[in-house]
Amino acid sequence: MKPAERESPPPSASSVFPMITAYMTSQVIYVAARLGIAELLADGAQSGDELARATGTHAPSLRRLLRGLAVVGVLDEVEPGRFALTPFGALLRPGVPGSVRNLALLFVDEPVWRAWGGLLHSVRTGETAFDHVFGMGTFDYFAQNPEAAAIFHEAMTEGTRWAAPAVIAAYDFSRFRTVVDVGGGNGTLIAAILAATPGLRGTVFDLPIGVEGARRHLEAAGVADRCQVVEGDFFRQPLPGGADAYLLKSVIHDWDDERSVAILENCRRAMPAHAKLLLVEPVLPASVERCEAHQRMMMSDLNMLAVAGGRERTEAEFRALFTAAGFGLSAVVPAGAPSIYSVIEGAPK
Question: Does 29 share its domain with 115?
């Protein structure tokens, strides 16, 4: 028996119960994000009654929510019935550095929330719960629901802003002259890479709804003169050819093996012999440990099971995808804590 196991207190209801009820905290944070509580408190503390008037809510019920936010660290109750933002709560403001507002809306709003409610169906059948609940896949759903699509794209931007510094610090992009960011959305990642790598030129390639706002992001980063925006579908249309590197962040994990190979084969057709394929994804360990990084990876994998129909993968599984698509896996470069991402590098065979 390991020493840590001998010293651990025996399990009890008090230690398990917070995990059982964790979804309650998620909903409390979601409602705060929906009501814009953080924005309203940006300039200082307010009373529950003031916040109720500003949000058009039932004052006694809102006060109960505000006290719930206080006990989980989003707010401080600075005096009875009066509340102020904590540094953690400030991250629910839109547009601030490190904002997670849209991540909170995405993961606890109806589409993802209801899909997770169907997790048992996924585990029993292997089918995607989202498809079972809504009768369509996630991207078809977003195509029909513009508000949900906007939240999704903004949440992806927030997640990429969070991940980009560690990825850029870990991987040397300066050895390339041109990079195509495949499925790069509004250009958040390629803009950060170009800003950190003078002389590098880029292309962001995605569906029209994905690249909406890309030019604005590129201009804000001061790199618009070094990056073009190309609209297209990586399943149906050729990718911009001849670049030194083809970068895909959080793309392959959305898809099953067959469709992932199709995406990678499309990249292979566009690539010259010297080019590199770069996937930015979590790499699952062969066996998991009880730690924050592995917990985040496995919850993401279950989210892919329930919501997107894809999966997170081990190094061996990435190697198999690469082989099937005509690549050799040449390196796995972990971005390091707090990121859970690695850069998985491949080269055409």
Answer: no
